[in-house]
Design brief:
This protein has 186 residues and is mainly α. The chain has a domain of 83 residues: NADH-ubiquinone/plastoquinone oxidoreductase chain 6, subunit NuoJ (Four Helix Bundle (Hemerythrin (Met), subunit A), Up-down Bundle).
Length: 186
């Protein structure tokens, strides 16, 4: 009974999210509802006891939608109303120090990793998804994290480069309009 209620609830939510995706005119609303719809689709996998596929659905498809989200922010000028505030330099210094400490810990992990034992040794008693998780988060944790950081840096760099190009194109357009107005006035 609970599964049927959950199925109909997630089905309704998925349909609503994809309807918003198709009907809205705002690109960021469309991408947000698309990401929510993908997460609700993963709920169907969890209801069918396919946990690994549910997690892959969230990571792969919702991650791809978030990449689309970043590119939409770059190409559409959706950040024009956003004002940046920096309340305190102490907070920035503290967060920078914590990030540096985290990077040092991540980079020192391979040195220590020979001594680290997995919580559950891989055996025939555990499932395939658990074995993948154990290997991924013990032996291959550092390459996994490095790949994630590289993708994040590439996304941020793309946003910064696109915003600079938008600023340059806006000033160029304004200059062209001023020149046209001057020609008309003469």
């Amino acid at each position: 009974m609970v599964e049927a209620i959950a199925f109909y609830l997630f089905a309704a939510l998925t349909i609503v999210m994809f309807t918003i995706t198709v009907m809205t005119k705002n690109a960021l609303y469309a991408l947000s509802s698309l990401a929510a719809g993908m997460i609700f689709i993963s709920a169907f996998f969890f209801l069918l006891d396919a946990d690994f596929l549910g997690v892959v659905q969230i990571i792969v498809y919702s991650g791809a939608v978030m990449a689309l989200y970043a590119f939409a922010m770059m190409f559409f000028d959706t950040t024009k109303d956003v004002k940046e505030k920096n309340p305190s330099k102490k907070i920035v210094f503290f967060l920078s120090g914590m990030i540096a400490l985290l990077l040092v810990i991540i980079l020192l992990t391979p040195i220590i990793s020979d001594k680290v034992q997995a919580l559950h040794p891989i055996s025939d008693e555990i499932g395939n998804a658990e074995a993948v998780g154990i290997v991924l988060f013990t032996k291959y944790l550092v390459p996994f994290e490095v790949a994630a950081v590289m993708l994040l840096v590439a996304m941020i760099a793309g946003i910064i480069l696109a915003s600079k190009r938008m600023d340059e194109s806006i000033t160029l357009k304004i200059d062209q309009e001023i020149e046209q107005d001057e020609k008309v006035a003469q």
